[in-house]
Amino acid sequence: MKQAIGVIDSGVGGLTVAHELMRQLPKEKLIYLGDTARCPYGPRSKEEVKQFTWEMVDFLLEKNIKMLVVACNTATAFTLKSLKEELDIPVIGVIQPGARAAIKFTRNNHIGVIGTEGTVRSHAYTNALRNIKSELEVNALACPMFVPMVEQGILEGSQAIEVVEDTLAPLLQYSNMDTLILGCTHYPLIKDTIQSVIGQHITIISSSEETARETSTILDVHQLFNKDDIYPVHQFYTTGDLEIFIEISKSIFKEPYLQMVTIEKAYLHQLQDS
Amino acid sequence: MKQAIGVIDSGVGGLTVAHELMRQLPKEKLIYLGDTARCPYGPRSKEEVKQFTWEMVDFLLEKNIKMLVVACNTATAFTLKSLKEELDIPVIGVIQPGARAAIKFTRNNHIGVIGTEGTVRSHAYTNALRNIKSELEVNALACPMFVPMVEQGILEGSQAIEVVEDTLAPLLQYSNMDTLILGCTHYPLIKDTIQSVIGQHITIISSSEETARETSTILDVHQLFNKDDIYPVHQFYTTGDLEIFIEISKSIFKEPYLQMVTIEKAYLHQLQDS
């Protein structure tokens, strides 16, 4: 019997999606795999991202998942289409949910998107948005400093503000956006800092929250909801350093979620061979 | 070729869903049927609501719709399950999307729901919410004055405030809600009045906006998006007085949406016979 939702990410960013899944779908068991050993995916080639993503998917398929959440924008941008075509379970990425939420929120049809180089280079958000609503004006900006900063645990304070101010300055200068999509699952961790820099008049869309919500919709459509009223134990895996992954998990999940998680080291086939 | 999204409602309330569908999915053609001749559905029996709803569905199926949106909370509460079981096109109601959005927004797990007598009596929102997240506290209140008030065009001003204040007083007294679901598609028309009465600290969820967004998700899952970049002409039908329906449509749609709509009188099989 297929019971769990599989979640993959290039590292710890997808933990913000996992946290939202736990909050919005507390009866659903998660199996999470973060490829922290090879993070970040943002600057990598399309081929490399596809290969790494498929290795993660194979790891989770062996654990008999009922649905796959690609909780990494770069992996979504480059592999969602082929995953949807080739897997016989429902697959959701983080891009479409963020795009749909932005379309719902914007009133002036000007949307900003920030993400990694890979995500911005792929035009995945611009395409997702404009395929649905052609008249949208979309301004996308790559923020290569944000992921390394978050991975170092710098989430607020003067240094964080300075990096965010400097990075977003061009976007704020040329865009009339009323809605900004956080097109990287690391960014919700610095959402407050970003909001303080851009001002309260711009609505921030967290692709993590929105993806959790659409996961709920898709489980509903496919009648895959877990009906049991038992709170699950989630299995988390990292390809990288276990201690660092546990530390970051603690900062994201806090109680009561942390006590519902086991964290182990994962050995992917490709990594074992090399 | 199936091209349009079918939308049914007991009257004009579903026009708020139609408006959101046009705004969020501007490439999709709508065929709307409002059963204004037999509105309101709120006080009717389950059997009557089911019969009327199926008569509307039959009318739209003859027009070859690719998806059905049940834009009436009462009809959703009583017929969604059988429609999903018996139709071979995707069906969405207004209750699940509102419930999912409320779960996303609430931080204290206290959710309020207002709707018609029928919707509240059915416990449809409470069930939808607690099936996903058992620990939610849900307080539902029937507001039988709101639909007749909206149908009379009283949307703001001292009379509207007085009715809303008197009606919501018990809910505000016993509920600690941080999120309130407008569980009736008429209510978005008095959203500003409701917000002024309950205060800015409570997030209002419009099931209309949320249903349009989930319609987008479901079209995506089933690969039913219209890819053509041509703006459609929407066909609207009413079983009741054509002039009144046109007047209310004008107040909801304004430009540029109104010029993309044709409005005609509908004759349902059952109504023709009686």
UniProtKB/TrEMBL annotation, chains A, B:
The active site is at C72, C184. Substrate binds at D9, S10, Y41, G42, N73, T74, T185, H186. It catalyses: L-glutamate = D-glutamate. It comes from the Bacteria. Pathway: Cell wall biogenesis; peptidoglycan biosynthesis. The keyword Cell wall biogenesis/degradation applies. GO terms for molecular function: glutamate racemase activity; identical protein binding. Its EC number is 5.1.1.3. Coiled coil: none annotated. GO terms for biological process: cell wall organization; peptidoglycan biosynthetic process; regulation of cell shape. The keyword Iron-sulfur does not apply. Keywords: Cell shape, Cell wall biogenesis/degradation, Isomerase, Peptidoglycan synthesis. NCBIfam families: glut_race, PRK00865.1-3. Provides the (R)-glutamate required for cell wall biosynthesis. Belongs to the aspartate/glutamate racemases family. This is Glutamate racemase. It comes from Virgibacillus salarius. The lineage of its organism: Bacteria, Bacillati, Bacillota, Bacilli, Bacillales. The gene is racE.
